[in-house]
Structure formats: structure tokens, C-alpha cells
Amino acid sequence: MKRIEAVNNFVIKFANVNGSGSASANELFAKAILRMGVPVSPRNIFPSNIQGLPTWYEARVCDRGYQGRRGGIDMMVAMNPQTWDADVAELEPGGYLFYDSTRPLPPSKFRDDIHVIGMPLTEICNAVYTDPRQRQLFKNIVYVGALSVLLEIEPEVLEKLFSEQYKGKEKLLASNVQALHLGRDFAKEHLQSPLGIRVQRSNQVGDKIFVDGNSAAALGCVYGGATVAAWYPITPSSSVAEAFQSYCAKYRVDTETGRHNYAIVQAEDELASIGMVVGAGWNGARAFTATSGPGVSLMTEFLGLAYFAEIPVTIINVQRGGPSTGMPTRTQQADLISCAYASHGDTKHVLLLPEDPHECFEHAAAALDLADRLQTPVFVMSDLDIGMNQRLCQPFNWDDSRSYDRGKVMSAEELEAGKDFGRYKDVDGDGIPWRTLPGTHPTKGSYFTRGTTRNAYAQYSERGPDYIYNVERLLKKFATAATLVPQPVLRPAAQKTRLGVIYFGSTSPAMNEALDVLTEAGIHLDALRLRAFPFPSSVVQFLAEHDEVFVVEQNRDGQMRSLLVNELDVNPARLVRVLHFDGTPITARFITQVITAHVQHGVMSPQRESKERVF
Fold first, then answer.
1. For the Pyruvate/ketoisovalerate oxidoreductase catalytic domain, which residue ranges apply (predicted)?
2. Rounded to whole angstroms, what are the CA distances from 454 to 412, 449, 466?
3. Could you tell me whether strands 209-212 and 390-393 are parallel, antiparallel, or unpaired per DSSP bridges?
4. In what order do the strands lie in the sheet with 526-530?
5. Fewer CB atoms inside 10 Å of the end CB: C or N, the chain?
6. In a 3-state reduction of DSSP, which class is residue 536?
7. Which candidate, 194, 196, 243, places its Cα nearest to that of 223?
């Protein structure tokens, strides 16, 4: 029988039951491989209930450093009878199935083209532990121990991780190490090892760090100067505010006085949270909120106020599956339209599109600068895949000499000198007016802030020319934003081509691998990774240089494609949809198959676009 053979290059998936304590054990497994110097990219795919439903943990081990999902599974650790059939079906021919063999299963439950490894995990744990909860929890550690033998993961690395996790809790440390060696001892004596896939110590990790996007965004807000956060809990964004609070407690407390130089408010709902952020921004504080799609829906009227009254606001949107409450613990890139045009009337907002935790850090700090500079709401469009999963990425860098860009803020000296102050007046053609902060001058520079129409000097007016002046000036400001936002990243093909591909955000890791695979197959594409909306002029140029451009995104309706058509007047027929929206992160295999089918046959059905739906 065929056997998958690979060193430091395989995909392993754990199928568990939510609430069984498996997540920490699976994370321990992934971190051990990372500690051996081998790049690993894990993804926790879990349900939105507390416990009982299926959960999966997929780890991509790849010495080439690919961080996206590949597609296909080389080894399945099947611990959930509910999903057995689907889990076994996912295995590649020649792959490996590891399962709890305490209860015998009929031959019909297996496949002839895979290698089966049975281990009586429940029986082993029942013999050693009397407490039912211990039996369940330590079963996860026992299978990690067995896998460490089968895959040649160094036990010293696992023990070191335990010692770090349970520092000062020696009883827990000893019991976990015991469970680890229960698994290792059984595997050595009874299981055939090693397998065709294995881990070998390497040095491919380098100086990269392992962090989730929500923590990175929170740290970016600290470094970017945010002093106010108002939020309401919602999956998958809650840990942004929690991490911000943790970082502020460490970095924003005066060592001499003990004074906390920050304000964090858990509001009663999303409406209140965005209202607080708008108020703080109006007062001159750098403020942000973190939310997800349903929260943005509730915030839209305040966002319209901030846009029209020109108040700096930063919103970190960790996107999830929708509409309505949708799939709270699944990932999508489906809030593009709702955020770009949030609120009623003629409204446009700046969106930043990070690809990984490193850019979550950078974009969060940049958003606070841009919000001040442009006097407008700015969205950081993360998603669950980036936000809640740990990634290897470049270390965060910060120039201590960097000063915050507060934009056009008129000083007391300028007001005293008689400088003309029209709160909504365009003085230099970039569409951005001057503002003052409360208390700047005792008698000058004050103005009335309203959400209704006014003239350039903030005086109430319903005259058509005054309204047209304001909304056209806001368009000028939006055009200015296109020159200030993070610019797209071009990856040219190895040879001249009239085919291009546009992608963004969390699609990037899988896209990087897909481009390599397509090139090896003789399909050459120039690739442009978008990093922001509005679109800079380089996007217009890229579209003009190609006959067909694939637009790869994770939503049903091709929202990025719609933005390109709407904003740049590009012919829709030239933009080919590549859509993935089952709630799991897109795979390199999916992208490759869809683009290859279109290039070879010139057609792409909706069924083809959304074929991959296996959790």
C-alpha cells in the first residue's frame, strides 16, 4: 500500500469534542514542533456552543514556511465518533489514521488505502485515573505522548513546555509528565514507529515570533498611542480588548504614582461603546473599539456621525461568518461592503487589510495615525483566522523616535495670532480641514459639532451649495487617504503575462503557496496584495495591464470585486471570482484548482467556486 513519506512537511488534524480539554493538548503538540525549529501553522476550528459539538485542530507542518492551509490531511487523530466518517474521508491516500481502539469498530469504518493506528486510550486512562474528568483530560496528553514517538518529536521539548506552563504548580506538572510518558511507553512497546511522516530538528524558524492577531492588534494600539478603549464582548474580537487591558496594566501605569494612564470601559452594548469612542476622539484622545460584524451593524449611525462631523475613530473588526449571528466561530472576509459604506447617505470609510499578526500590529498603530490625520473613522479589517490563531511572523518593530501624526490641529498660538479657523474649510486642496481640541484657547477656536448640515465655519445651514461643498470635500479627503494608506504589494510573475490576481488579508498565506504551485504548472500570474481601501493608483494601473484578473476572497458575493468595480469603473467581465465561504480558512489547493480550471477551460461555475465545504 502507498505510504505518505515526508519529513517536516505534512498536515495533521485532530478531531475532538468541544469542552473535552483537547485544545491545550493540541496546542502543546504544535508548539513542540515549533520548538524543534520547524515552522508550524495551527488552526483551531471550534463551534460556538460551550461543549458537546465537534471541534477540529489542524496543524500545517512545513519546512518551506507556508502558513496557509494546504488542503488535504496526511494524518487524522480521530477522537470524535460523531464525525468519524467525514474525518476518515478527508485523509489523503497513503495517510495515517490514529484512533482510540478501546471499542472495536467494524471494517466498514476504515479505508483500504490508509494506514490505521489503534491505541486503547480510554482503557489506559481508566486503568490509571479514577476521576472521570482526569480520565478525559489526560487522554489528550496520552495521545500527544504516543504521537511524539510516532513522529519523533523530542520528549524533552514537551517536558520543557510543561515546566513553563505549570511553573509553581508542581503537582500539575508531575501529573502531565506522567500522562505524556504513559503514551510514549505504550507507543514504544505496541505501535509501529516511526511513520512515513516525521519531525526532524531544524532551524527554519529563525527569529520569527508565534502570536495571534488579536494580541498583536492590541499591542499595536498601545504603541500607537491609544489611551481609551470602549467595547462590548463579541466573538471573535473580545480578546483584543482583554489583551489591551493586560498590556496597559504593564506599560501604562506610572511607576512613581501608580496612576493608570488609560481608560477601558466594557459598555452595555456596541452602541454605547462606539459612542464613547466618538466622544473620546472628539476630545482629542486616541480611542478605539474592537468588534465583529453584528457590532458594526449596531454602530453604523454613530459611524455616520463621526464621518460627517470628522471625528477620529479606530475600529478593529475581527470578521466572522454572517449574516445575523451567523457562524460566530467561523472565519470570513464578509464585512467589506458593510464597513466601507457604513451608515446611511454618501459615506465612505478607510479600511486597512492586515495579512498576519505582524501587520495587525502595524496597521492598528497606523489606523490611529490615519484617523487623526484624516479626522475620520478607520477600520482594521482582521478576521477570526488571523485574530484567534497563532502564527509565525516577523518580530514587531517600533522606532522610539516616531512621533504620532495628529494631523491638522490648530494651536492656541495660531489662534491668538489671528489664523483663520473654519472647522470644515478646505485650505490646501487635500480635503482635510483644521480642527481644535477642547480647551485650546479661552475664547477662540470653539465650534458647534453637529451631524446635520453646516457651512465651512460650522454654522448651521441647509443650503444646497454648503452641503455639496462639504460632501465633495469629503471625497477629496478620501482621495488623499489613498496616498496615505498602506500601499499594495506586487509579486510579479517569472515571465510576462496578461493574467493577474488580486487578494488581501488572511487569504495571503494560502495564496503565496498557490502562486508557487501554479508557476510550477506553467500558469503565470502577476499578483497584487491589497492592503487598504481606498485603492491607490497602482491598483488602477495593475488592472489596466491585465486582460483578466482573478479576485480571491472569502465571502459569497465577491465583495472586494464589487468594490473594485464600483470605485474604479473597471469592466466586471475582466474580474474573475474565486470565492470560498464555508467558514474555514481558504486552502492553497482550492485556489489552485479554481484558477487552473478557469485557465484551462475558461469557465467557472458557482459550484466550483464554493466546492470545498468540509470542516
1. 19-184
2. 24, 10, 7
3. antiparallel
4. 489-491, 526-530, 499-504, 548-553, 575-579
5. N
6. coil
7. 243
